[in-house]
From TrEMBL:
Cofactor: FMN
Organism: Flavobacterium helocola
Record domain Pyridoxine 5'-phosphate oxidase dimerisation C-terminal: where: 173-214
Protein name, entry field: Pyridoxine/pyridoxamine 5'-phosphate oxidase
NCBIfam families attached to this UniProt entry: pdxH, PRK05679.1
Length: 214
């Protein structure tokens, strides 16, 4: 067994104080997101971990790509028939998290997911490269398949079928909008006294701001 007890880092790059933050967490997310992008904090700044409660009762986390965010929430796209899609449709309570180590920041978002409108999914699907469109159609996501050749042969067949045609979005593929109910911003600080600011949505649809002990 490898002992990791000596793995330590001092966090000293920034601070997160109440007198420096907006009343709305989306505005702070916007600021942090583009700061992370400008500083090349990670290869894909829009990569986020989404955790769902599966049909088997276990939580499961995986990385997906954020494709849009606004005052309503956060949008990503997936196969609705996948393990992830079925989990969300059964229990829409999800958690999103971003970790940008270069800027020593983490964001954790609790929210309620819902399917995006069909025209939103259609417009995004239309913007994808043809290869990505066909990949979404050919893959029975999360299902057991016999081998890699199964996908490659099916893809070749689809390429022939759709050659010269507009590739349409399949009904089982589309977006989810996660509407946040709680957003926590974590800023690394020296001596493990990290800054943690939590926004919670109240019954009056206002954001309650609190500092959490690290």
């Amino acid at each position: 067994m490898k002992d990791l007890s000596n793995y330590r880092k001092s966090y000293e790059k920034s601070e997160l104080l109440e007198n420096q933050i907006p009343e709305d967490p989306i505005n702070l997310f916007h600021k942090w997101f583009y700061e992370a992008e400008d500083l090349n904090a990670v290869d894909e700044v829009n990569a986020m971990t989404i955790t769902t409660i599966g049909l088997d009762g276990f939580p499961k986390a995986r990385v997906v790509l954020l494709k849009k965010f606004n005052e309503e929430g956060f949008i990503f796209y997936t196969n609705y028939n996948s393990e992830k899609g079925k989990a969300i449709l059964n229990n829409p309570n999800v958690c999103l998290s971003f970790f940008w180590p270069t800027v020593e920041r983490q964001i954790i978002i609790k929210g309620i997911a819902e399917k995006t409108a069909e025209n939103v999914s259609d417009n995004y699907f239309a913007s994808r490269p043809d290869g990505s469109k066909l990949g979404a159609i050919v893959s029975p996501q999360s299902e057991v398949i016999p081998n890699r050749e199964f996908l490659e042969e099916n893809l070749k067949q689809l390429e022939k079928e759709w050659e010269g045609k507009e590739i349409l979005r399949p009904a089982h593929w589309g977006g989810f909008l996660v509407r946040p109910v709680e957003v926590e911003f974590w800023q690394g600080r020296p001596n493990r006294l990290h800054d943690r600011i939590r926004y919670q949505l109240t019954d009056n649809y206002e954001w309650k701001i609190e500092r959490l002990s690290p």
